[in-house]
């Protein structure tokens, strides 16, 4: 299986890119019956967008390579992005290359405001996954998510990104079936608990003085934004009651992806630690008390999790990878993790109504037509 990738080196992520390049490009591809593509935002070898097209899907044409390059270069000439601080970005690449095991040369930075096309294969794209099926599930889910991101940027509220990320993360958490908790430290076993887990894991890696700063900053930030959070939650509930609303369509896409991932977990394609090996586990003494309690068994081995948790964790990590398209920084993501865990405890009835609205808003979105096996 072959895929075409268009890389656009661009320092900024703003509405003009979507209005003037991506939305017209999406329309151009749709007019040619082609929907098997997605977009990501990356930092590797310079800030960039990466469009990936399934070259094995129906209606794909090799001649599109030249057309996409021409469109991209025309946009870059008309709307160049700000110059890149190469020294600062190299320093960033050194940190992220180690943190994410990206395997790049951190000294290499592609020229800004340029575009290039190359062909690749499923095997190459899936090299860091346990199987090609895992990568394809990520690709398929990102197709659904990028449609919502593009619609957001091209809509009237394009650029109000934290609210959209808030709504996305609330709906994501609501796809996971809740269960009562007998642990006084856990409000409920639900999708929001993973936000708390991610936040606790991140906070545990900070120095004590940094933890104190974060505790104050996030507590104050939550208080300052609390009114906005309540308004956004009320608006989301109202939007989900409207058939055909953007939020309803995104809810159906998230539910559909979760159900598909449950089937992948049932088939053994993914598990709770995918894409890492099942046996891979951090040193128990190096993680937080929360993670020691919930991720290790009595013998210090990896705790077994149900299929639904494996599916939800897989979907959660795909959504997290989408947030850079919304200009959500790692720090803002952790603030949302912190805030949503608190908010769901205060607003449990509203969260319950949103969950029901999502599950009853219509038939989950069908998968985009795929290439023949």
Structure description:
The termini are close together. With 373 residues, this protein is of the alpha+beta class. The protein has a four-stranded antiparallel beta sheet with strand order 2-3-1-4. It is built from 13 helices and four strands. 55% of the residues lie in helices and 8% in strands. The chain folds into two domains: 2-125, 2-Layer Sandwich (Alpha-Beta Plaits), CATH 3.30.70; 145-359, no CATH class. The longest helix has 33 residues, at 208-240. Strand 2 and strand 3 form a beta hairpin. Helix 5 (132-154) crosses helix 11 and helix 6 (161-174) packs across helix 9 (246-266). It has helices at residues 15-31, 64-78, 86-100, 122-125, 132-154, 161-174, 192-204, 208-240, 246-266, 289-295, 307-322, 330-346, 348-359, and strands at 2-9, 37-42, 48-54, 114-121.
